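Folded chain entry —
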Amino acid sequence: MKTKIYSLLAFGALALTVQSGCKKDFLEKDPINQVTGDVAFVNKEAAEKLLQGAYDGMYNDYHIWDYMINGDVTADNAYAGGDNQANIDIDLFKANSTNGNVGRDWGSLYSDIKNANEVLENVPNIQDPALDAGNRRNEILAEASGLRAYMYFNLVRLFGAVPLVLKTPANLSEMQPAKASIDAVYTQIIKDLEFAATNAKTTSANKGIITKGVANALLAKVYASKPTPDWAKVLQYCDLTIANGYSLFGSYNGLFDAANKNNSEAIWEMQYDGWGGQHGNWMPSVIVGTGWKRFCTPSNDLVKAFNDEGDLIRRNASIYFMNATTEGWSDSYWAKANYPYINKYRADDKSDSYIIRLADILLLKAEALNEASAGGWATAKPIVNQIRGRVSLGSTPAIDQASMRLAIEKERRLELAFEGHRWFDLLRTNRAVAVMNSSKDGAGNNLYNISTANLYFPIPQAEIDRNPNVK
């Protein structure tokens, strides 16, 4: 069996992936599954390498860095910081179709989809009995399906309607696909995740791969994010995830200690091993340290939220303050004598980042219970209190469905800050416009004046030029 190059679609995606990217060595490395012509895949070893190539492809700007720009800087958790105009324009809701980050994200995610599709196209046709021993062939297909679903989940939340590319383009028409509706994209995401949840490994010591727990957790998040959430399904898949053996890590601060990678709370975690290995995490070096103005500065609004809650444990684990008066840069939001930096990524190029952890799913379960009925807040309350109890906070004061809804929103913000979730939480709850327009700087001034027209990224201009069907 042979795999083919992804022709113009692949080249377009890969070109966008590197456009305006950071100048890091890993962008110059060839992924394991890159091909320069027809390549034969004839045995289990080749199938495993093809799948590994799909995972290795995730170590790109989107998953290392832009997840925080999109999830926290776009929202009210952080300012762009630094001097990168593309980041600043996203922060201020001024990004247009030529924004470098927007093009890079589109290209990175479609490149990841290409890699997953190569696995799904080729592995079923490899004639090697070893692939079917212990259900390994289906596990490989399940992992690739889960990866593809995750990439489309990011695309549909960032861009809305996008093309569904599920196989190697065979002709010009397939190289220039029209956008599928948001509902159609979600239908495909759910189909892929259901296959993954049925066929993937139940657990794995390597928390960087797709397992049943990951697939079920993603299904819970997907059903909560659809244009019309299905709270019964959210609850179903939260329960299936929780039953998979995860448990809250004892120390919130310890979650971000490099000694506690792949802990009991981690469901899916990026696996960084430093530049001496294959996967180095350059993100901490651009948010932490001195000598030049760092990116992703914690916002006044978030610091105030921590302080108003008396949430010192999570604040100090998430943010640290430093005297930066000797630095040669200026800042519009913070006095340099007490300047905030993100504190969740502390191990330089070996800091892992969580894609999903149990606290996220527990709070999502509480949300599903609260939304299911007017009295559901009472059953949601013990879950919220469990999360609060870990950081020595008392019981939530919520006393009805409406107050519990806001309590869960706040709890998710403080618990998951700088992990790439905040903006997508505001989007799926239809709270983005109201929350952003009430966000204030340190002097009490409103920072934003947005509308629903600002909620999605524009399709990149380079993609429109290549494919007129995505206008």
About this structure: Residues 288 and 315 are 16 Å apart (CA to CA). The longest strand covers residues 266-270. Residues 283-353 form one domain. The longest helix spans residues 136-159.
